[in-house]
């Protein structure tokens, strides 16, 4: 019964965009009949609409799916069956890969997770906590009976902490220790300081000198030896600081210099902005972490700037004269 | 008809994004999955039936409000939940703006992870339609299928996404005291003691 309504709602939701006046009215009449229809239709339509945003993310199916002639091979043939087996076994391999850290996590020694330049990685830990590790970063994980200790050796990571009162979750970044029980926060280790952003719950942070502060959701802190500067963050700042977890970069009034520095974290060869009058221009936008080319294209089109590739392979942004 | 369209837009933008959070929270209180399904359905149906819906813009808070009333009603009638559990429900408040924003991201990421699990042909047709933006007719021609078969694959993809989303429970990581209490706690810098730790971790 409920299943029938869901199936009907799915069919109507995909017909609606192409429907003529009369069919549209019929669909709306079905929706209006009762709340069960309406909720099912809204669920179907939102599944349909949300999938549109995948395009912007550059979502793609695995390469083996690209060729149309393979797709029409009937499943009964040997080829079809073997292809299906291949797909299944790769799914199994992914599932297994996901389990491996969990199993090894039971051992006493630290487990190290790192990312290469340009890579963003998600790791699920044995306790259910999830790490997002940003480009060129390393996290070491040691779980014991009474403590979950993580060391941010370099770079940036976000911690989605599973609730466990008996085992506090400590993240060390140099001398800075951030302790959580069940929250979500991001830590970026920079040359001179550590940047903390809390998106859920509350953490306590301690710097190298033993000074401590509590930082709650919606707040961030800049930690240097001897000083913890905490402040409320506006939603845009939080969005900007956490967008990398979706492999996105968000600029909202950043200068070109700052935006370029963000992209450079993911590039083997940096973009160079030597001219300070260009570097100080403010930009807004949302790009994939690997889309610095698109960003450069937008700068050329929107700001009248010139982008050249230098002899050393680096890309430089210049003014057009 | 315009009214229905506007209400659908509201429901999809304001209410539905919190479906997994609702289920996640209710799952702490309702033990059987049948009760859970029924309650989530009922809460969403009541949300749809809201008369002055245009004035509701905090979907999460609104859904929890409906859920709480529903559970209290049922507790009085059937004693399916204890009042202790209702107190638990009261405790669960949310930082709305922040969560809304984070939500949109995690939802997209979830969808991205889920799509490869669709049956092969279904996933392929869905990808062609939604990502490559081909029309049903173009897809039908390219794959030598009938338009109605393409439509069936698309409908199936949507149905499987709907159902998987329905089962999703947004995990509640740790207890959440109200945003104001958290904010106050930040202001008192330093002096973290074990007792204040327990204050934030008892659930």
Automatic annotation (TrEMBL), chain A:
Keywords: Membrane, Transmembrane, Transmembrane helix
Occurrences of domain FecR N-terminal (ranges): 17-46
Coiled-coil features, chain-numbered ranges: none
Keyword Membrane set for record: yes
FecR protein domain span: 113-203
One Pfam family matching this protein: FecR
Membrane-spanning segments: 86-107
PANTHER family: PERIPLASMIC SIGNAL SENSOR AND SIGMA FACTOR ACTIVATOR FECR-RELATED, PROTEIN FECR
UniProt name for this protein: FecR domain-containing protein
Record lineage: Bacteria, Pseudomonadati, Pseudomonadota, Alphaproteobacteria, Sphingomonadales
TrEMBL record, chain B:
Domain of life: Bacteria
Record has Amino-acid biosynthesis as a keyword: no
Database matches in Pfam families: Sigma70_r2, Sigma70_r4_2
Region feature (Disordered): 173-203
Gene3D superfamilies associated with the record: 1.10.1740.10, Winged helix-like DNA-binding domain superfamily/Winged helix DNA-binding domain
Composition-biased stretches (Basic and acidic residues): 184-197
Location of the RNA polymerase sigma factor 70 region 4 type domain: 109-158
RNA polymerase sigma-70 region domain: residues covered: 17-78
Keywords: DNA-binding, Sigma factor, Transcription, Transcription regulation
Family per record: Belongs to the sigma-70 factor family. ECF subfamily.
Name by which UniProt lists this protein: Sigma-70 family RNA polymerase sigma factor
